[in-house]
Amino acid sequence: MNTDLIPALDAAGLPGPPWLFHILLVFTFFLHLLFMNLTLGGTLMALVAHLRGGGRADHPDSVLAGRLMAVNTYAISLAITTGVAPLLFVQVLFQQFFYSGTILLGWIWFAMLVLLMLGYYAAYLHKAYRGPWLAVSALSFLAIAMIHVAVHLVHVQPERWATFDANALGVLGDPTYWPRLLHFVLAAITFAALVAAWWAVRRARAGDRVELNRSIARTGWRWALWATVLQVADGFLLLGVLPREVLLGVMRGGLPTLGPLTLSILLAIGLLVMLARATDPVEHPGLVSGTLAALTLTVAVMSVTRHQVRVLYLEPATSLFDPTVVPQWGNFALFAVLLALGLATVFWMVRRVVTSPAEGDEAA
Amino acid sequence: MDYPIWDSGLSGGVLMAWVAITHVIVSHFAIGGGLLIVVTETLAIRRADREMRELARRSSLVLILVSTVFGAISGVGIWVVAGLISPGAISALIHAYVWGWAIEWVFFVLEIVAALIYYTTWDRITKQAHVLVGWLYFIGAYLSMVIINGIVTFMLTPGRWLETRAFWDGFFNPTYWPSLVLRTGICVLMAVAFMLWPAFTASPGRRTDLVRYLGWWFLGGALVSYAGYRWWEAVLPDTVTALFLGEAPTLVGLAATRSFALWSLALGLALGVLALLVAPRAARAVTAVALMAAIFAFFGGYERLREGVRKPFLIHSHLFSNGLLVDQIDEINATGLAAHSGWVAAGDPAPEARGRRIFAAQCAACHTLDGYQSITEALPTVADLELVATPSSTGMDRLAYQAECASCHADVAHAEMVEMLPSIEEIRSDPDAIRELNLGMITATVMQLKEMGEEITAFDRSVMFDMRTLERGTMPPFVGSDEEAEALAVYLASLDRTPDAASGDAR
Prior knowledge:
A: about 375 residues; globular; B: mainly alpha; 2 domains; 22 helices; elongated
């Protein structure tokens, strides 16, 4: 490996121990994934449902598309908001690799900003005008996913930077590129589909347009089932095409690496079993909630595995450097306290809003 | 300077300016808008005033469409662009202030969630709960500015941080409070400029009231902004104010920017008082456009001034805009840049090719080849010297002398310079001799920039440097070995595309 191309560590040192930033990076990335899944999976699914609904407002697929895009009013904003924190922590922990990776992609990385704006405003334009905007939005978010996978694969392979410098698009030929992209897209679709099914089941159980909601719940459930079937196959494929050293690193890592990987495989198989057990989810509300919870747990565990794979990819390079640590514990404590207070305030605010419904002159 | 170089084809500085300008406009509007909207709603409830409520409601749509996404994406955009054009610099800033940014993110989450709820719960929750959400939005948004203001002001006036490297010494630096006051005023001005549009669509009976109501906000915002600006100027060190104040400011362009900014504010204030308070009936769309232009000009002028006086640093007296730390100057001079950066070391070892890589690593953060801050325009060429040496009745020769020679050879008058130069015929018949001459001048300038680095390392590192004492104090020093300095000069000299008079071939 030409280690000369790897920039020096930042001279200022890490303002906290590395483990702290690893935890913060994984935790905030997990939060980001939840909303990213709704944004990407929801928009892709809404596009298909919208086309299948054929413009008939009362068609279950049209209602499903409308609901997914209504959720996305929040989800897109929150995906961006929660994406800021992992972007911050990745710059602290992996600045040498992350900046180099983004620079080698250059305009492609910059295009993410433009696509993000396009995807978001197209989602609003779809609500107001219909037309092609939903497709524009879905394709924008898909393109952003492609960019993120590209940045990831470039930044973790410094030994190939000289090649990427000559041809950045060569990353599309990386054996893991397409299986990795598909892994994220399928997870996003599964998550959005299950959230749609879960909501429809709640509405149906509450007696609201039972048949319509039953139909929507079935559609969401089917999408989740088939996406998970493909996901399991793709997951094993991705594992198989990982560089040998990385795979060996996972296998030799003992409980810390094999534990999360085994757990996520078991969870994926468990998800398949749960999804296959029912054809009419409205009749099994507990199963639906349990499946959504299991999927959320899978996303959390897979976030850990993804991070460990990154660390293993980079291990030959990072082992050359010995970061100095200049901890700012007081500032971290302030952050932790404010984070707790901030989240508590958000929950309190949401609770207050939910418990303060009003109509007519009483309403704001 | 050891990162790969993004060859974007345009100036990184210009790209950053576009993203940053967009962000500051939107983010200040998002904060001021939050305040004005929630105060307006509170007043509407107290007075049972439907028109005021509608004003708050209509404004909140713009707030959410613009701030929750455009503001957020452009904010991320600043990181993205900084990481592309100046990775070492943004890395240093993030390593020093990661917890500041992390805290800002907490407030940002509160701001965004509250904004989304606020907009979508009109007509659906109680007035009290809705106003509460509005206030939480404003608190979250304002506190995010309270944090980021510490980091932004630290970059210009790091204060005692230079000595102690302590987080809070840098955060509560000399310009922290004046800047916070100034930005608070600007937030209000921004919000008024945007809220005038929904106010114009109020019922004819109430339009005048609402415009006047916004006029009082405008007056307050303008006065607070002016006070904050003056205070900011007053706490700047003399070494900084001398760059743009006084009878002979060092940077004349920045002095003009200052005048432009203050006159814009004065004009905006006069127009605001007249059109919004004295004769609100006369306020039209064109009034809002003019006010917006005046505020943007003031705000843009101030930001340009703030960035300009910081030149050539990203963090004053600590980190140059090309990512070079003051602490690295001696080391890189001793070992050479190639030993420091694999991207400079790799590739064709010929001087011109090496020079191109050195240019990319050290100079390209600010200079393009032919666009903004063009390096080719700054360099002497055969054609330039031809112009200097060719007598001209229109004075072109003198202009060329002023542009190409006077800054370095102030003690040599134009006539003397012409005497010293070969004749026009000699220049045309043997342009290579002139190229040699130019290479010598460029090499001398690069070496001068290298020596400047040695002067800088002798400065007292515990206080802000006085860059006026340096010959080229608006530029970072050159760092690297003497061979690398010569390679850079060879590359720069090769940028002269003057065609040979005999063959017409461009070199």
